[in-house]
Amino acid sequence: MQLQDVAVKRVTGAYALIDSLKRHGVKHIFGYPGGAILPIYDELYKAEAEGGIQHILVRHEQGAAHAADGYARATGQVGVCFATSGPGATNLVTGIATAHMDSIPMVVVTGQVPSHAIGSDAFQETDIFGISLPIVKHSYVVRDPRDMARIVAEAFYIASTGRPGPVLIDVPKDVGQAVFDYEPVEPGNVKLPGYRPTVKGNPRQIAQALKLIRQAKQPLLYVGGGAIASNAHAEVKELAERFNLPVTTTLMGLGAFDEHHPLSVGMLGMHGTAYANFAVTECDLLIAVGARFDDRVTGKLDEFATRAKVIHIDIDPAEVGKNRAPDVPIVGDVRHVLIDLLRRSQEEGDVRDPERNRPWLNRIARWQEDYPLEVPRYPDNLSPQEVIVELSIQAPNAIYTTDVGQHQMWAAQFLKNGPRRWISSAGLGTMGYGMPAAMGAKVAMPDEEVICISGDASFQMNLQELGTLAEYGIAAKTVIINNGWQGMVRQWQEAFYEERYSASNMQKGMPDFVKLAEAFGVKGMIVRSRDELKGAIAEMLKHDGPVLMDVRVKRDENCYPMVPPGKSNAQMVGLPERKILERAAELITCSSCGAKNVSSNKFCPECGTKL
Fold first, then answer.
1. Is position 525 annotated as part of the catalytic site?
2. Is 173 an annotated catalytic residue?
3. CB-based contacts of 285: which residues, under 8 Å, 6+ apart?
């Protein structure tokens, strides 16, 4: 049946749900069936037979949520997942929370026990509406099938507008089975008087922001995931180039600005680059674009960017001033605000000046020279950094997903990602996220290379999704950086717990990953030395199907630089000691204004006097 043939017709609530999803452009659903959601799966079976929509059967509901999340991050569209009531729904919770923390648009559909049984502790009954309230943008329980089309339309609208996020639709079994006169609701045809996200920024605040940008001598553009969500990549670049602004990004903001660009200073924060952390410590203006001043970025909050005035642009008014009070708050969609700011800037005669902020950029350049990210090479061991770098050389344009831990931070440091080509659990830090997210990204973008960088501990959280990759021939590649530890836990135990390695050694009980992959029908590979690495990666990329590669690396390698808990961003550990001493010893005083400067400066950043 063609969609246009449906006007008013006797159908089930389950049919109305599936038809509404199709009307909203849904082509893939990740899920796992069960008793309460069977009416919906029965209609899905018929819809798949007609074509235009595909269900991907995962091996665990958490995998469904992460796959829908990866699908959404790769495309910017709403990801969709299904699960049944009770344990099916609760198995989605970690994935919902992951999406919520990172502002990812998802619609989550759960089955529920029949309406008359709700509250009776029926078989597989759980109040998923109540359980998920803190981790969703909005929730629905469908009480009447006549509300189904409206609820779906509202859910997609809420999930994808304003600050994106997951929306839950809980469907009791009898509502899915009920027959009624169905009237479709087209996408966007919703009325939500209490929900009006602010899109356009206040013109007076934009004018104030421009004034501060023009006055700043040591500005820094601090870009977060909001720039990705609003597709503001071009506007971020234009702003940076017009005012010669160095750009640092959060973990969520990676890819929002070309990291090969001379104005890029990489990621800041706990495992950010030294030069980004020094820059944020020394800047006199911090322009926060779609970022939320997360604790992993700021370090000790009361010592974060203490010399800087702050412009904060964000779609969510709750984030503006939550952690750091801005001098100029601008609530609005990042892209729309930047478009208005750039238009006003052009009208008022601002032009690109390559010498603007030159002393400041020279100072950052010296930090980049003194404190580069290092790729160690050991005589008898392969370093994790070498693996990441070789992947970036052979697959520079791939979509990369990661799990969580040391490998995630090395990937963030050494990969140079384009827009929507970096997919990682940032806010929640969810182990087991990487491979199902890669699965979702590859389903969404079948012609793109998709690579998951995982750790041996993280991978074992959701290894069952190898079965999904095998069943559907989803050609996502997974590279395990295998050091036999929960790597970041071990690093913290070494640094802060006097080397008491409590429950972090993963060697005992570790599976043979090659045999495991082959048991699922997936190509398995192992790399034990530097000599094997280049050829193995080439072979993996050439293979037309999913691959699991186990790369054995140095067991006790630590991820540096690192800002210890409770320290400021300038108090990093893991930097070359000689350079730290040189930097402290080479402070000189400006003869004009008396400001302290490192001797590598050619000009005083405070007054511009030649040193």
1. no
2. yes
3. 212, 213, 215, 216, 218, 219, 220, 308, 309, 310, 311
Distance between CA atoms of 415 and 365, rounded to whole angstroms? 20
pLDDT in tens, 437-469: 999 999 999 999 999 999 999 999 999 999 999
H/E stretch holding 111 reads strand 106-112
| Catalytic hit among 46, 123, 211, 534 | 123
Whole-number Å distance between alpha carbons of 141 and 89: 13
Average pLDDT of the chain, as a whole number = 95
Around 197, how many Cα atoms within 13 Å sit in the side-chain half-sphere?
A: 17
Beta-carbon contacts of 262 under 8 Å, excluding residues fewer than 6 positions away, are none
pLDDT for the residue 202: 98
* Options 112, 125, 154, 173, the catalytic residue: 173
Positions of the chain with pLDDT lower than 70, given as ranges: 1-7, 577-588, 595-611
Residue 604's pLDDT is: 62
- Catalytic residue status for 477: no
pTM for the predicted model, two decimal places: 0.94
Q: Residue 119 has which token pair?
A: 């509250």
**DSSP code at position 192:** -
> Identity (one letter) of the amino acid at 145?
P
Phi-psi region of 545 (alpha: psi -120 to 50; beta: other; left: phi over 0): left
Give the neighbor-by-neighbor strand order of the sheet with 247-249: 264-267, 247-249, 219-223, 285-289, 309-314, 328-331
Record the tokens describing residue 96, joined without a space: 């919902």
* pLDDT for position 600: 46
Domains delineated in the chain: 3-182 (3.40.50.970), 203-370 (3.40.50.1220), 384-552 (3.40.50.970)
Residue 206 pLDDT:
98
- List the beta bridge partners of residue 401: 423, 452
Residues 253-281 have pLDDT tens digits of 999 999 999 999 999 999 999 999 999 99
Please tell me which residue in 30, 43, 61, 523 is annotated as part of the active site: 61
Catalytic residue status for 562:
no
Q: Number of C-alpha atoms within 13 angstroms, CB side, residue 344?
A: 19
Catalytic residue, candidates 124, 394, 464, 571: 124
Strand partners, 82: 31, 109
Q: Would you call 488 a catalytic residue per the annotation?
A: yes
